[in-house]
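anyone else get weird line breaks when pasting these?? whatever heres mine. first is seq + tokens for prot A
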Amino acid sequence: MTRHGPLNEFCWMDLKTRDPSGTAAFFSAVLGWDFAVDETDWRRAVVFSAGDHRIGGLSDLAQPVHSPGLPAHVSYYLAVDDVDHRTAVAAENGAQVLLPPFDAGDQGRISTLIDPVGAVVSLWRPRGFAGWPVSPPDEGAAIPHHMVLACADPERARHFYTGMTGAPLSRATFLEAPAGSAPHWELSVAVRDPDRVAARARELGGESATATGGAARLSSPEGLTLRLTTTPRDPAFLETDRLVLRPATAADAPDLLALDNDPAVMRYINGGRPTSAEDIRDRTLPRLLHDHACTGTRGYWIARERDTGAFLGWFELRPLDDRDPAVVELGYRLNRAAWGRGYATEGARALVGKGFTDLGVQRVTANTMTVNTGSRRVMEKTGLTFLRSYTDDWPDAIEGSEHGEVEYELTREAWEAAAAREP
């Protein structure tokens, strides 16, 4: 089957409104989107673009095809490999099928369902469409960055979508919503200046507020909502074939919150307990933003996929003594979408090499729970060797902590010797 765009990613949205001209004018002025009639479409549908990239359509709810009284909303489309099969899997796992799979003319095959936590989503196998853009156009129009599902049971939602599609969703996060909130998917768009965008929205009759997870949210006068995230501006600290490592900023808080609220990610950190937005703000970000005088740089870096810009997690190469770069600790925390793809080893190797060649590092150390075999494999593939086993005092014991900890190390001399042996 020909693959026309990324699978397991959201790739299209439809602004469903009773005020098409007003909605188009609002989002054009606030986000820089260009609305126009698709002259190649026999239906003469209205589509909108960010730069040269089409990202969505505009539907008039006054048309008879829509149910009377249907409120304005945004529909989102998830690209899958086989709509019929994935719809059947969804139904078997608790989803309610609203629209069974059907052929949408020359646009592809589509179905619509309500997932087990109550959010509506459409599955789409598009024909000849490459999906959302992954980098901002030159004129700075807002582009789709990632999707957020805030609901009462984010882990159940994550498990459902992974099972339905056969892999973790790329560029999607799952957050716990405040009690009483209706579950729904929501797009976060990348903009240069979220504060300016929010102010412009208010000038034009819209609203702005803080969404679940701490991100800014804007709302059109009719109530169509989107989240805002900042387009990265900081230069890359390090790039590999597939990764870009950049200094963290406060704008990374929503991604960090989602990362630390995945029980599987936190299994060997805190046993999978949830993390609050306040913890990210007061504890995580200050640690990631700290500059070390002895190396002249940070000790942590945000990792993004080079081709898509997707958030993957973070890497650590932190001096144990802030006055001396000789000994550093290696660490990494990546989301599940990055697992099994060699990203941890790729980033760790690059950071270790950077430390030995540019930062004055003489020894790299890394620690993990004895039972964390995945992390230990990354250490070994990075060139570190087992040094010792030990026990540590855990404030709250978690499963596996009774087996203790392990420490691995790599010295500059050993790294240079290994590098000399490589062809």
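and prot B, same format (seq, then tokens)
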Amino acid sequence: MPTQQIQSLVERFTSHFETYQQSTYNETQTRREFIDPFFIALGWDVANEQGYAQAYKDVLHEDALKIGRATKAPDYSFRIGGLRKFFLEAKKPAILIKNNAEAAFQVRRYGWSAKLPLSILTNFAEFSVYDCRFKPAKTDEAATARIFYLKYTDYLEKWEELVGIFSREAILKGAFDKYIDSKTHKKGTAEVDTAFLTEIERWRDMLARNIALRNPVLSSRQLNFAVQQTIDRIIFLRICEDRGIEDYGRLLGLQNGPKIYTRLFQHFQEADERYNSGLFHFKAEKGRDDPDTLTPSLVIDDKILKDILKNLYYPDSPYEFSVLPADILGQVYEQFLGQVIRLTPAHRAVVEQKTEVKKAGGVYYTPTYIVDYIVKQTIGPLVHNQKLNKISHLKILDPACGSGSFLLGAYQFLLDWHNEHYQKNPVKWASGKNPRLYQISGGAWQLTLNERKRILLNNLYGVDIDPQAVEVTKLSLLLKVLENEQNLFPQLTLWKERVLPDLDNNIKCGNSLISNDFYQGQQLGLLDEETLYRINAFDWETEFAPILKAGGFDAV
């Protein structure tokens, strides 16, 4: 019986309380001997005894990889059907959590960044639940946003209440959601997408004004490109830091010393050698689009960059980028791209809403659950009972991809399909010269980086008339390639392999509704450069020639 298990845990903890309070009794022991059994009693398959694939495990245990003063990811992620429900951050009993503001800030950052309503902080001796809808701030006290607190001596008395909220069954029956609704306090809440949008809009405004001032020869189009690329590159590298792919704190360290942009751009150049993505493309290479020759010579004041970089790190930043969902980033950028930078006659930068957005009454982002439903109904029948070779030749197109929400959904669907297929015989698919799987800590199997790249390059294509949207789609997909990646360093260090795909042949810029025959019979001399740029006719026969010759796209 679960209550007997809890009684046994409480009695054992009480009997050896002084031992457990010593600093030598560590977090790993606490998790194994007390926290794991506690949640097993709540009905969670903590050890994955059901043998589910990684994507569908009840509980994900994250490696405690220390990066700076924070950890790479929360210790536990509790999920239903692969969807996160809440995080749990564990501490050893020697750390008293009731008044520990730093530990509370840490777990709230995780939950808030992942857009989860609640997260738990516990050392078994104490059990704290935080409302993660409140934006965390470094000045918050430990009690801020805390909505539930127990000591281990309360567990037996409060066990029915704990079961009624945090058990697996309670979540399946909706009791967890009802509990969240009962704790709703609108005052002080700020969702991560809204807050992050406000932050990058602030960056855009600062960068636009400063770059326009210090680089007076730039056109409006060049200014928009320079600002967007600078923001995208910083966000990409910062997310890579929190995922353990880049050295944590490297961007922050650029604050120390003069000529920050010169040193930041050196970082961008190194990223080109490491990642091979169009996001960092500064040298002419055979088979690739023209390199970026504009941003290498930019002048940006140190004060502006110091502000941006400082606010990306603990304790000034409330964001934990390792858990920031890809769809949240897409939602932020969808709103962000609704505005454009315009230059006044005096060459001052002004940010204003795009004309087409004004006419439409704003920007509307498709919710993730709708994306998932459409993807499942569209791609599901195409992969049903099909062999791997057939799936490898699927061509999926979003002709108005925006920030990439549907392509991200389709990519995740295909990643899950391949993972399930390979795990029917994991040893086979983890062998040979080109393995599709590798084993991560804890014994689970995961798609190799090369396989994730192959799926992306083989199957997914997009077009958008907005060049900034095209770059955001690429950014989102590249971050998705690196998501949960734990096997990157051998490729970077041993093989010197550039680890990301170049998506220029997959995600293209153009007006998918207007082809090149639009210009037939037109007096092109009457159309100025700006008009031609806005029309941006798209030549399908040229841009996707091999696909169209082979019969076209399978899903649009």
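btw re prot B: Residues 63-71 have pLDDT under 50 and may be disordered. The chain has three domains: 2-182, 192-357, 366-549.
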